[in-house]
Amino acid sequence: MESQTPDSSYEASRDAPLPLDVLILAAGLGTRMRSGVAKVLHKLGNRPLIAHVCRTAAALAPRHIYVVVGHQAAQVEAAVRDELGADAAVTFITQVQQRGTGDAVLAAREVLESSQHHDSSSTLLVLSGDVPFVRAETLGALVHQHRTHRGRGAACTLLSVRLDDPTGYGRIVRDEENRFSRIVEQKDATAEEKLITEINAGIYCFETLKLFPALARVTPANAQGEYYLTDVPAILHRDGDDASIFPHTDAREVSGINTRVELADFERALRIRTVRRLMLDSGVTVIDPYNTYVDAEVVIGRDTTLHPNTHIEGRTRIGEDCVIQSGARIVNSRIGSNVTIKNNSLIIDSEIADNCTVGPFAHLRMNTRLEEDAHIGNFVEVKKSRIGRRSKAMHLTYLGDANIGERTNIGAGTVTCNYDGKNKHQTTIESDVKIGSDTMLVAPVRVGANSVTAAGSVVTADVPANTLVAGVPAKIKKHLQIEETAPAENQNAGN
To answer: Could you tell me the residue range of the domain that residue 188 belongs to?
Structure first.
């Protein structure tokens, strides 16, 4: 990093820095992805690449965020809004033709200059929408150097890294005093310049009111025939303004993603980083870290064990002392403590209270909730339903749009027939009910407390409390005394 000499202007810049704006370049399609989807919309850790960059930018608390869009602009805007929120201070700028990074920044000139006060400028941080690993701490240090360079601040500061193999990247050429001179792109570099290992990472700080006059002087006099933003630091340098270099040591952190191979490499790195954090910081046991898939947003409590080939995605929260067995996939769900999710179960957008078991081969979806100590067994699907405390459905059952009370046992093969061909209807099963095997419950229908349905019943009308029903359609066969209906937890769970 270049030496700095603090003085009174340094104190002024530190105490009252110019406002920070962020400009994110996200207009390109990304031809090397070989995709019809814009590159910044490809997902890393179940979030678009642009979302990662936006979150990091927002962590700097900038005055405003500007995003240059082009290909699939509406979808990119939606992804940014999803990440930053509908009320975020963000403006979208359209680059009509993709003619290089300089043209992308120039597209923002009118908006950025109109946002400035007449008596002041701003510090503009320029980022690429395909650099998902860059950290706010790194960018904060870059901005700090930019504002304090030589005690008065620089007109431009660019981030550099050194690579053993810099092929394909723009080289940073330094002068005899080891200061910035210019950037030369790979296709325009001489044989000697290609030996330079310090490359431009494509992350910059500019003084906004100096940026655009210099950018207007850029011409497409290069092998690509494009307007290079990389030409601006050299123009400022020739004009006598300071162009500062911020050397960084972590090339992966500031690297962009250009191909699906690179995307997979980043996905693997993110996954290993996430799993290591869970083990080291949260006290989670991960039996096989290299075959366990956990998104970065997931939170897991201590002494929970993840078996190999588990997939935990989105904003899932898992409590303490849980066991997640092989083949389980959990998406955007909340799991309590002391819960066991058995092999090959799928749980999406659902909530499971403490001391429950699910699976194997179970499927919970669409805001299903299991109350404490409920049990869902093998080949049971539960959709948009509530299963009460200590209730069970252990085998080969479909429970859709159902509300089930406490201590109720659902026999094997039970189906809530919730769809009449036009509309969905609810089934209510109250507490301490025993539903016999192969019972069909034709919604809308209610089964009263302490009732029993015989095996093979087709229930088409409400069942009063304390009754036994049987048949097709089910009819009342007997009025039961309370002592005739023992609590469900005392019955054979395989009923």
So the answer is: 8-247
**Strand, helix or coil for residue 292:** coil
Q: Which of 190, 220, 247 is the last residue of a domain?
A: 247
- Strand pairing partners for 383? 365, 400
Picking from 165-169, 378-382, 473-477, which range would have the lowest pLDDT averaged per residue?
165-169
Q: What is the mean pLDDT of residues 356-360?
A: 98
User: The domain that contains 407 carries what CATH number?
Assistant: 2.160.10.10
The pLDDT tens digits for 4-29 are 333 333 333 445 678 999 999 999 88
The two structure tokens encoding residue 164: 């053993």
What values do phi and psi take at 250, rounded to 5?
A: -105, 95
* Model pLDDT for residues 276-294, shown as the tens digit of each residue: 999 999 999 999 999 999 9
| b/e 183-208 (16+ beta carbons within 10 angstroms → b) | bbbeeebeeebeebebbbbbbbbbbb
Peptide bond into 132 cis (omega under 30): no
Q: Does residue 453 carry a pLDDT above 80?
A: yes
Neighbours of 165 (CB within 10 A): 7
Please indicate, yes or no, whether residues 157 and 37 belong to a single structural domain of this protein. Answer: yes
- Which positions are catalytic? 395
Is residue 353 within 8 Å of 335, Cβ to Cβ? Answer: no
